[in-house]
Design goal:
Blueprint (H helix, E strand, L loop, with lengths): L1 E6 L13 H10 L5 E8 L14 E9 L4 H4 L2 E7 L2 E3 L2 E3 L2 E6 L2 E8 L1
Parallel strand pairs: 1-3
Antiparallel strand pairs: 1-2, 3-8, 4-7, 5-6, 7-8
Length: 112
Protein backbone atom coordinates (compact mmCIF):
# COMPACT_ATOMS: atom_id res chain seq x y z
CA UNK A 1 0.00 0.00 0.00
CA UNK A 2 1.30 3.45 -0.88
CA UNK A 3 0.33 6.97 -0.04
CA UNK A 4 -0.73 8.94 -3.10
CA UNK A 5 -2.34 12.25 -3.77
CA UNK A 6 -4.81 12.73 -6.60
CA UNK A 7 -4.78 16.36 -7.60
CA UNK A 8 -7.08 18.42 -9.75
CA UNK A 9 -5.50 20.68 -12.39
CA UNK A 10 -5.89 23.69 -10.07
CA UNK A 11 -4.13 22.08 -7.08
CA UNK A 12 -0.75 23.29 -5.95
CA UNK A 13 1.76 20.72 -4.70
CA UNK A 14 3.94 23.51 -3.29
CA UNK A 15 1.29 24.54 -0.79
CA UNK A 16 1.87 21.25 1.08
CA UNK A 17 5.65 21.07 0.83
CA UNK A 18 6.48 22.88 4.07
CA UNK A 19 4.03 20.98 6.27
CA UNK A 20 4.55 17.73 8.14
CA UNK A 21 3.06 14.55 6.69
CA UNK A 22 0.28 14.53 9.32
CA UNK A 23 -0.52 18.18 8.62
CA UNK A 24 -0.62 17.42 4.91
CA UNK A 25 -3.02 14.52 5.39
CA UNK A 26 -5.24 16.58 7.64
CA UNK A 27 -5.31 19.48 5.20
CA UNK A 28 -5.89 17.21 2.23
CA UNK A 29 -8.69 15.28 3.93
CA UNK A 30 -10.54 18.52 4.68
CA UNK A 31 -10.02 20.24 1.34
CA UNK A 32 -11.38 17.70 -1.12
CA UNK A 33 -14.08 20.05 -2.37
CA UNK A 34 -11.56 22.87 -2.85
CA UNK A 35 -8.87 21.34 -5.02
CA UNK A 36 -8.27 17.67 -4.36
CA UNK A 37 -10.22 14.70 -5.60
CA UNK A 38 -8.93 12.22 -3.03
CA UNK A 39 -6.15 11.21 -0.69
CA UNK A 40 -5.52 7.68 0.45
CA UNK A 41 -2.78 6.26 2.59
CA UNK A 42 -4.10 2.75 1.88
CA UNK A 43 -4.42 2.59 -1.89
CA UNK A 44 -5.12 -0.92 -3.10
CA UNK A 45 -3.48 -1.09 -6.51
CA UNK A 46 -5.68 -4.05 -7.42
CA UNK A 47 -8.70 -1.71 -7.34
CA UNK A 48 -7.26 0.54 -10.05
CA UNK A 49 -8.18 0.00 -13.71
CA UNK A 50 -5.99 -2.79 -15.18
CA UNK A 51 -4.69 -0.37 -17.79
CA UNK A 52 -3.46 2.02 -15.06
CA UNK A 53 -0.37 -0.18 -14.64
CA UNK A 54 -0.27 -1.01 -18.37
CA UNK A 55 -1.51 -4.50 -17.43
CA UNK A 56 1.00 -4.91 -14.57
CA UNK A 57 3.97 -3.63 -16.55
CA UNK A 58 4.61 -1.13 -13.72
CA UNK A 59 4.33 -1.26 -9.93
CA UNK A 60 4.57 0.94 -6.83
CA UNK A 61 2.15 3.72 -7.65
CA UNK A 62 3.58 7.05 -6.48
CA UNK A 63 1.18 9.65 -7.90
CA UNK A 64 -2.05 10.15 -9.77
CA UNK A 65 -2.66 13.40 -11.64
CA UNK A 66 -6.14 14.33 -12.78
CA UNK A 67 -5.78 16.01 -16.20
CA UNK A 68 -9.09 15.65 -18.07
CA UNK A 69 -7.98 18.00 -20.88
CA UNK A 70 -5.24 15.53 -21.90
CA UNK A 71 -7.84 13.20 -23.39
CA UNK A 72 -7.76 15.18 -26.65
CA UNK A 73 -4.03 14.42 -27.03
CA UNK A 74 -3.79 10.91 -25.56
CA UNK A 75 -7.22 9.35 -26.14
CA UNK A 76 -8.41 6.85 -23.55
CA UNK A 77 -5.05 5.12 -22.94
CA UNK A 78 -1.34 5.78 -23.46
CA UNK A 79 1.68 3.98 -22.00
CA UNK A 80 4.04 6.96 -22.14
CA UNK A 81 6.90 5.21 -20.31
CA UNK A 82 9.54 6.89 -18.17
CA UNK A 83 9.53 10.66 -17.76
CA UNK A 84 11.77 12.62 -15.40
CA UNK A 85 8.89 14.61 -13.97
CA UNK A 86 8.14 18.30 -13.86
CA UNK A 87 5.32 20.66 -14.60
CA UNK A 88 2.28 19.01 -16.15
CA UNK A 89 -1.29 20.32 -16.44
CA UNK A 90 -0.61 23.01 -13.85
CA UNK A 91 0.75 20.44 -11.36
CA UNK A 92 4.11 18.92 -10.51
CA UNK A 93 4.44 15.36 -11.75
CA UNK A 94 6.97 13.02 -10.18
CA UNK A 95 9.66 11.15 -12.07
CA UNK A 96 8.51 7.66 -12.97
CA UNK A 97 6.66 5.56 -15.52
CA UNK A 98 3.61 7.46 -16.75
CA UNK A 99 0.43 5.75 -17.90
CA UNK A 100 -2.60 7.66 -19.14
CA UNK A 101 -6.05 6.21 -18.47
CA UNK A 102 -8.51 9.02 -19.06
CA UNK A 103 -8.91 11.28 -17.14
CA UNK A 104 -5.81 10.49 -15.00
CA UNK A 105 -2.09 10.01 -15.31
CA UNK A 106 -0.80 7.16 -13.13
CA UNK A 107 2.88 7.50 -12.20
CA UNK A 108 4.70 4.35 -11.15
CA UNK A 109 8.06 3.92 -9.45
CA UNK A 110 9.14 0.60 -11.00
CA UNK A 111 8.97 -1.21 -14.31
CA UNK A 112 8.38 -4.94 -13.73
Amino acid sequence: MASIYILSPSASVAQFSTESRNDQRSKIDTSIDDQLIADSSTVNESELPALASANQKYSNLIQVLNCPNDRSNYGDFDDWGYWGGGSWCEQTGKAGYWVWVAPNWYIWQKQN
